[in-house]
Amino acid sequence: GYTPVEPHIMIVQQPIAAPPDQMQTVPYKLVTHAYRRQLPEVKTTDYLMAIWLQPWIKEQGAHDVLYLWEGAVTECPRSNFFIISQHNTLVTSANGMLQGITRANILSVAKDSMAVEERTLTLEDIRTAKEAFISSSTKR
């Protein structure tokens, strides 16, 4: 059975290197996969699906996976997803994902200079978008 224990804390410190020059000019390619994390609103270290998908992601020539759930775009394993629509509106998913700190900061700053929507995001929205990007505090 499961026996709760006293928690232990481990802190690992590493310097974060600047991204390689090619990351500045080469598009960051995502592939889609139907999946929803068990508790998507909670920050956890459950990246099992993302790890399991790594060989397939590489076969597709992609950098990461973008999760879909019931036709809605939700998130990447360690980042939030955004588009800029044809009407210059910043759009990001409203539900089914971790509402990250960097995401909140982007939305806060963007509201001062453009329209912002938090709503269900679809693949069709991505196909017609002017731009798309991800955000993360921890992704290298």
From TrEMBL:
One biological process term in Gene Ontology: carboxylic acid biosynthetic process
Protein origin, superkingdom: Bacteria
Keyword Transferase appears in the UniProt entry: yes
SUPFAM superfamilies for the chain: D-aminoacid aminotransferase-like PLP-dependent enzymes (SSF56752)
Keyword hit for Mitochondrion: no
Keywords: Aminotransferase, Transferase
Molecular function GO labels: transaminase activity
Pfam families: Aminotran_4 (PF01063)
Xref: Gene3D superfamilies: D-amino Acid Aminotransferase, subunit A, domain 2
Family: Belongs to the class-IV pyridoxal-phosphate-dependent aminotransferase family.
Name of the molecule in the record: Amino acid aminotransferase
Lineage of the organism: Bacteria, Bacillati, Actinomycetota, Actinomycetes, Geodermatophilales
